Amino acid sequence: MKILIAADESDCALRAVTYLVKSMANYGTKPEIHLLNVQPPLPGRATAAVSRSAVQGFYRETSQKALARGRRVLTRSRIAHEEVHLVGDPGRVIAAYATEGKFSLVIMGSHGQGAISSVLVGSVVRKVIAYCKVPLLIIR
């Protein structure tokens, strides 16, 4: 079984990872786990002012920070996983990655932490629901 956990720095994302750890027995002997973070693209003006390597470094550093809490939980529980860092529209990229990767299940928090999350709570989840062809488990 292949399981994708879409995560950011939010408490909901941490609860999604914790749910997986507590329910591992439900997913077979050794499921393949991918911990994914998708960073929204920076505005074109911002990327034009700095080098490509600086922009890529920013995305990587921000994404690694976003996955730190989930990584700690999985590592402490001795659950092997692969980390994936992507850039793009989070909802569409999560859905595409899950579908193209032929995952059995996507697990994610009901809402995340973004620059405008207070206005668009759950907008990423709504997009994943709309575009994903893989079963989705939403954790509150």
CATH level-two architecture: 3-Layer(aba) Sandwich
Strand order of the largest sheet: 3-2-1-4-5
- Biggest β-sheet: count, sense, barrel? 5 strands, parallel
Count of structural domains: 1
Helix content: 40-55%
Whole-number mean pLDDT: 90
Please tell me about this protein's structure:
With 140 residues, the chain is of the alpha/beta class. It has a single domain (2-139), classed as Rossmann fold (3-Layer(aba) Sandwich). The protein has five helices and five strands, in the order βαβααβαβαβ. It has helices spanning 11-22, 44-48, 52-76, 90-100, 123-131, and strands at residues 2-6, 32-39, 82-87, 105-109, 136-139. It has a five-stranded parallel sheet, sandwiched between helices. The longest helix is centred in the middle third of the chain and has 25 residues, at 52-76.
Quick recap of the structure?
This protein is α/β, with parallel strands linked by helices. It has a single domain, classed as 3-Layer(aba) Sandwich (Rossmann fold), CATH 3.40.50.620. 44% of the residues lie in helices and 20% in strands.
